[in-house]
Write a structure and sequence with these properties.
460 residues, alpha/beta, nine-stranded mixed β-sheet, four-stranded antiparallel β-sheet, 17 strands, 41% helix, 22% strand
């Protein structure tokens, strides 16, 4: 996937540029901007269809009533994406649930070379009761689309150009961009609390809907919304929504459940049990080898932390998804952090893109192992076999992108004479032989080792 994001002045991140790999990792110390980068990307991928508009004029629509109108698409799609990013930037305060004006100096830009207009073919009939039938068509191999009309009754009628534009947006934008952006699913760092208070969150939302339904017609519904429903950042809202839909979600089967059930078996072993949801929407955790049914309040923090991921893997995962997990190490023993890293590698090799933010040296080191073992050398095959590694878990260095959030010199901006320091994302080196280099982890471990050596040997 060739998708690159550039950020400026988003939260603590002053500058950031990152590209998605099959597996993308953002790591670094606390309060360095990792979650800001993840949230900004997720918000756009979740809502891009709201911001992209097809650049067709009223004059072209009127012209199409009498003749064929040619529309150049290559430049149009680039301009559409640029304009969409500008519109999205203006809505960042909503994505982060911040006061209006909080992101006035921010910039979000996204580019992709996955939009191949020439390979696409359209032949859409755009109909409505109030307009003649418009035909929007493009042949494979062409960079031009043709807009024409098919008037089935010989009578004059007024054209509602806004309606035509809206219909074109609805149909054509999906044709052009649906392959360019992955479907995101996010597991937020607040997931343990959301799973614990799932019922309360659902109840609060239901009460608000009842209050709105019974409110006086003269009352502005927005007043009720601002009073009765607290907005949260986009990933947290998505997590709350997902938890509220688990009863319906559980009825589905993902491609993993259908084609790769062994992955679910391994994941159950990591969780230490399974999850069950009843017809009356009661959610339970069932520890392996027991008949116990524990509520989320009674369950361990690790069981709550893995709940979202379990339902995603079992019920909704699709190839070409982008699975985003904020701090996958949350509440997990180091051994299970290693196993989660191996799970992500298996998903990547099945066609699911994975994006994580992490503080975990165990996850980084395990990914290193998976990269370093992925070579055709006899001793590496022996090491992999002796330690239980499967070929399906091994990944290539070129599949992985790693960025470290830390302070560094920022690029010069217009009017500046001296480079300033600020938080940014710095690409980590990834060597096929030695894996990922993250100096902040290594420095912390080296410092701890030195202290312990001094304690043991300092008096001698």
């Amino acid at each position: 996937m060739s998708l690159t994001v550039k950020l400026k002045n988003i939260g603590i991140l002053k500058q950031a540029e990152f590209s998605l790999g099959d597996l993308t990792v953002i790591c670094g110390e606390n309060n360095t901007g990792k979650t800001y980068a993840a949230c900004a990307l997720y918000g756009f991928l979740r809502s891009w269809h709201q911001f992209i508009r097809f650049p067709i004029s009223d004059a072209q629509i009127q012209q199409a009533l009498t003749e064929r109108v040619k529309i150049e698409l290559s430049q149009a799609t680039d301009d559409m994406l640029i304009e969409a990013c500008k519109k999205y930037t203006k809505q960042l305060h909503k994505i982060f649930a911040a006061p209006e004006g909080s992101f006035q100096k921010s910039e979000f830009r996204l580019s992709t070379n996955k939009i191949n207009i020439q390979n696409k073919k359209f032949n859409s009939r755009l109909t409505s009761l109030e307009n003649p039938a418009f035909i929007f068509a493009k042949d494979k191999g062409s960079k031009e689309a043709i807009l024409t009309t098919r008037i089935e009754e010989e009578r004059e009628r007024e054209i509602n150009t806004d309606s035509v534009k809206s219909t074109i947006d609805f149909i054509i934008i999906d044709d052009i961009f649906s392959d360019a952006f992955p479907r995101p699913f996010i597991v937020s760092a607040e997931r343990t609390g959301i799973s614990t208070f799932r019922k309360e969150l659902n109840f609060a939302r239901s009460q608000l809907l009842k209050e709105m339904a019974g409110a006086d017609r003269d009352i502005d519904p927005r007043q009720l919304l601002s009073k009765g429903y607290q907005r949260y950042p986009s990933p947290i809202e998505a997590d709350v929504d997902f938890m509220g839909q688990l009863q319906d979600v559980a009825k589905n089967k993902s491609f993993i459940a259908k084609e790769h059930p062994e992955i679910l078996d391994d994941f159950t072993d990591i969780v230490g049990g399974t999850y069950a949801i009843t017809q009356n929407d009661q959610l339970y955790y069932v520890p392996k080898g027991t008949r116990l049914k524990l509520t989320m309040v009674e369950s361990s923090s690790s069981a709550r932390a893995l709940l979202d991921l379990s339902f995603y893997l079992n019920c909704i995962a699709e190839k070409d998804d982008l699975l985003m997990v904020d701090e996958p190490e949350l509440s997990l023993h180091p051994e299970n952090q290693r196993r989660i890293a191996r799970l992500f590698a298996r998903l990547v090799n099945l066609g699911v893109k994975v994006f994580i933010t992490t503080h975990s040296d165990y996850i980084i080191k395990e990914l290193n192992t998976l990269i370093m073992l992925n070579h055709d050398k006899p001793h590496l095959k022996r090491v992999a076999e002796e330690n239980g590694y499967k070929n399906s878990e091994l990944i290539k260095a070129e599949q992985v992108k790693v960025y470290v959030a830390e302070k560094g010199l920022l690029d010069l901006e217009e009017g500046q004479k001296k480079r300033r320091r600020g938080h940014k994302l710095i690409p980590a080196d990834i060597d096929p032989e030695f894996g990922i280099e993250v100096s902040s982890f290594d420095e912390t471990i080296d410092a701890m080792n030195k202290i312990q050596r001094d304690i043991v040997w300092g008096a001698k």
